[in-house]
Amino acid sequence: MKKIALSFGAAALAAGMSPAVSAQTFDGPFIGAQAGWSEHDAGTFSTRLGNLAASRSHDAVSAGVFAGYDRQIGSRFVIGAEVGLDFGINDRFTRDTGTALMSVDPKRSIDLTARAGYLVTDNTLIYARGGYTNARFRTSIKDRSSLRSSTENRDGWLIGGGVERAFTDRISTRLEYRYSDLSDGRGKFDRHQVLVGVAYRL
């Protein structure tokens, strides 16, 4: 968490030294790409193979794309909606229970969120985000007699926040933290992410 706080502080400091851009930069459609750190924190949760006592945390790299639309209200407030698609890199984690080897492999996640923000300068937006997320997992259990596998989607919700800085009327970068609850009402399966993104305004 200390690294996260330092990163946000550095981003805010750099934002204050950025050249001025159009007052309506954060308005209209955009597309972009993002990448960063992801951690899955699993306790005991339910799957099609039964209840799994994972009790594991696993760090990985996350990368994906996003698209959305912002609307600037007045001179300082921005609201918007966004859809994103993310993939984990080397994010499969395993646990040996002594009688079986269990593995969980997150395949991809889809996010549909809204955000609201405040322009602290004409080119620096601080915002909060929240909405729906859906993740696809492949779960496997191997014991002495068999190997069982199942792939399923898990619904959840996410919240987060970040800072976005515009370098030109078209290009901006952002740093964001997200927390997702993917338990789907069946135990504990959480995800933490710190993502760096680049957006292009259309």
Automatic annotation (TrEMBL):
Subcellular localization: Membrane
Signal peptide positions (record): 1-23
Outer membrane protein beta-barrel domain ranges (all copies): 8-201
Pfam families registered for this protein in UniProt: OMP_b-brl
Classification via Gene3D superfamilies: 2.40.160.20
Keyword terms: Membrane, Signal
Protein name in UniProt: Porin family protein
Organism: Edaphosphingomonas fennica
